[in-house]
Design a protein that fits this description.
Strand content of chain A: 15-25%
Number of strands of chain B: 0
Number of strands of chain A: 10
CATH architecture of chain A: 3-Layer(aba) Sandwich
Oligomer: heterodimer
Strand order of the largest sheet of chain A: 6-7-8-3-9-10
Shape of chain A: globular
Number of helices of chain A: 11
CATH topology of chain B: MetI-like fold
CATH superfamily of chain A: P-loop containing nucleotide triphosphate hydrolases
Order of helices and strands of chain A: EEEHEEHEHHHHEHEHEEHHH
Shape of chain B: globular
Distance between the termini of chain A: 17 Å
Strand content of chain B: under 5%
CATH architecture of chain B: Orthogonal Bundle
Number of domains of chain B: 1
Number of domains of chain A: 1
Structural class of chain B: mainly alpha
Structural class of chain A: alpha/beta
CATH topology of chain A: Rossmann fold
Largest sheet of chain A: 6 strands, mixed
Number of helices of chain B: 13
CATH class of chain B: Mainly Alpha
Distance between the termini of chain B: 30 Å
Order of helices and strands of chain B: HHHHHHHHHHHHH
Largest interface: A-B, 25 and 15 residues
């Protein structure tokens, strides 16, 4: 495996509150290789977006990185000064947000926004940047791109706008793209197109992608590996086929069982009993044990094993051994 | 060009303008008054400040009536010096409008800048700025303006005082009015700052100043425009009040407020027109600008559409 584009090591994000210090991200480690798409799934509040925000340095006070390392192409970026960080991450990380409505400046033509970003990061002339902006829009499938660079975001539909956002994220040739639920705000009919587009473009360029979502369909379709998060911790990580077909962590098993599939027929939807505990009231031991069908005495006392990058697959004492 | 003009005419903005009689009427009233003020030397029958064009015998002429001694008739009458009231109003409006525009411009630049900084950087800097604004709001604006005017005047060299009076006035009124701008801009910035495109721009390596100017400022200008218009009316009135109280425009450069102060002395001796016409002009001017501002607020507020 080539050297990882993004390496996260034992990342801990903490939010100090009046009563306790909350840990929305707790000792999370993983790698993303060039050209690889890593899906991060979990319920709301599981720490998916927090992890993404920690990587791009957009944690809002009082949340902060308490310990751990984030390496981008081998360079630590979690402890850089604001100024250095700005130079490093802007060039190397692209971002696709959930809502294409708010991720473009409503008062600037789209071509202008893309050209500006290119100028910011690549040593090209104004004219060159503009022609690259057209090329970038063509690449994401905007019809008549050259005629539309002067259009404003409100003149595009949601799906088209998200294409523009993808063009914007990729135009500075970043090494890593973080896509935070890029299809959640879109019509079902265009979700698949957008995911396919993102996948294709990143494959072609060898861009690593961290795809945050809670849509199992998106995961199955697009990603190479999946990281499942639960209550701030990594529950399971592995190749997408393994995780989806032979989940090792009981939480993943439950998650898969509760995903409706047309082929299963219209049976009653399975669900995992209970709800994810709030961070302020995490149970002792493994955070999942109150909802876990396999919970044993050990789970009530000891938190599950912490997953190291490249190490085990599931953070469970009773994980089914992955088939090699 | 033609098509651009017709496109502008067809825009929603112009459509709602054409549909509002209040807006159309007040716009044209303001237009006429502004043009009259700007081209006062061409429009006015006399230059009221050129002693050679005055005839003391014409003093206290009644409006629309020939003077008993000279037979000259003046539309709006004359004052004690024989100055044509209509001309003094045109010249006075120049001062009033100039002070109003400049004061609002100054307040706007100051308020928008501080509001952007307070909203975008937040933290201690933002808190300090907004607390200063809150403190200033506890005083009536006119009092603040008087205070600043007095202090600033104290700092200007004596021989420059009359020349500088107008600029000191602009400074005082502008400084008393920045809070509105700062508050609104701060609020809008807080909303805008959280939007993804701003986050993306900051992720992209843009400096804070660049983000504020390029991305946030254009998106918060709508409400600023509304406040600027309403502030213009307030600034004109504030100027008139200060001048009426005798701390504003000097008698050598009388504004509408100065004219009212002068006219006030003749009110009870029967020469009502010296006071009345400048006062009516001030009223019409402030009212029209205000109505225009109200209409603008309604148009630019999507919730009221």
């Amino acid at each position: 495996m080539a050297e990882a584009v993004l390496s996260i090591r034992e990342l801990v994000v903490e939010i100090p509150t009046r009563h306790a210090v909350l840990r929305p991200v707790d000792r999370v480690s993983f790698d993303i290789a060039p050209g690889e798409i890593l899906g991060v799934v979990g319920e709301s509040g599981a720490g998916k977006s927090m992890t993404g925000n920690a990587v791009i340095g957009l944690l809002d006070r009082p949340a902060h990185i308490a310990s751990g390392e984030i390496l981008l192409n081998g360079t630590r970026i979690d402890n850089l000064t604001k100024d250095r960080l700005r130079r490093v991450r802007g060039k190397q990380i692209g971002m696709v947000f959930q809502d294409p409505l708010t991720s473009l400046n409503p008062l600037l033509p789209i071509g202008e926004q893309i050209a500006e970003t290119i100028l910011e990061h690549l040593p090209v002339s104004r004219a060159e940047a503009e022609s690259r902006a057209v090329a970038a829009l063509e690449e994401v499938g905007i019809p008549a791109a050259a005629a539309r660079i002067g259009s404003y975001p409100h003149e595009f539909s949601g799906g088209m706008r998200q294409r523009v956002v993808i063009a914007l994220a990729l135009c500075a040739e970043p090494a890593l793209v973080i896509a935070d639920e890029p299809t959640t705000a879109l019509d079902v009919s265009v979700q698949a197109q957008i995911i396919a587009l993102l996948k294709q473009l990143c494959r072609e360029r060898g861009t690593a992608v961290m795809l945050v979502t809670h849509d199992m369909g998106v995961i199955a379709e697009a990603v190479d590996r999946v990281a499942v998060m639960y209550a701030g911790r990594l529950a399971e990580i592995g190749a997408v086929r393994d995780v989806l077909t032979r989940p090792a962590h009981p939480y993943t098993t439950g998650l898969m069982a509760s995903t409706p599939l047309a082929s299963k027929g219209l049976k009653r939807l399975n669900q995992i009993p209970g709800a994810m505990p709030p961070l302020s009231r995490l149970p002792e031991g493994c955070a999942f044990h109150p909802r876990c069908p396999q919970a044993a005495e050990r789970c009530r006392k000891e938190p599950g094993p912490t997953l190291a990058a490249g190490g085990g697959r599931a953070a469970c004492w009773f994980a089914r051994e992955p088939v090699a | 060009m033609e098509s651009q003009l017709s496109r502008a005419w067809q825009s929603d903005f112009m459509w709602s303008f054409r549909r509002s009689p209040t807006a159309v009427v007040s716009f044209f009233v303001v237009l006429v008054l502004v043009l009259g003020a700007v081209f006062a030397p061409l429009v006015a029958p006399h230059n009221p400040f050129d002693p050679s064009s005055l005839n003391l015998m014409n003093g206290f002429s009644k409006p629309m009536q020939p003077n008993a001694f000279t037979g000259d008739a003046f539309w709006l009458g004359t004052d004690d010096q024989g100055r044509d009231v209509f001309s003094t109003i045109l010249y006075g409006m120049r001062i009033s409008l100039f002070v109003g525009f400049c004061a609002v411009l100054f307040a706007m630049v100051l308020g928008v800048t501080l509001g952007l900084i307070a909203g975008y950087s937040g933290g201690t800097v933002g808190t300090v700025i907004m607390r200063i604004a809150d403190v200033q709001l506890t005083f009536p604006a006119i009092l603040v303006a008087m205070l600043i005017f007095g202090i600033a005047k104290g700092f200007t060299p004596v021989h420059l005082r009359d020349q500088m009076a107008i600029w000191v006035l602009i400074f005082a009124i502008g400084l008393s009015d920045w809070v509105q701008f700062a508050r609104v801009v701060r609020g809008a910035t807080l909303v805008e700052r959280k939007k993804d495109y701003v986050q993306a721009a900051s992720l992209n390596g843009r400096k804070a100043v660049g983000i504020m100017l390029r991305h946030i400022l254009p998106n918060v200008l709508g409400p600023v425009l509304v406040i600027a218009t309403i502030s213009l009316a307030l600034a004109i009135i504030a100027e008139a009040t200060l001048s009426f109280l005798g701390v504003g425009a000097p008698p050598t450069q009388p504004s509408l407020g100065t004219l009212i102060r002068i006219g006030q002395g003749f009110l009870f001796s029967g020469e009502w027109w010296i006071l009345f016409f400048p006062a009516v002009t001030l009223l019409v001017l402030a009212l029209s600008v205000n109505l225009l501002g109200d209409w603008l607020r309604d148009v630019l507020n999507p919730r009221l559409r």
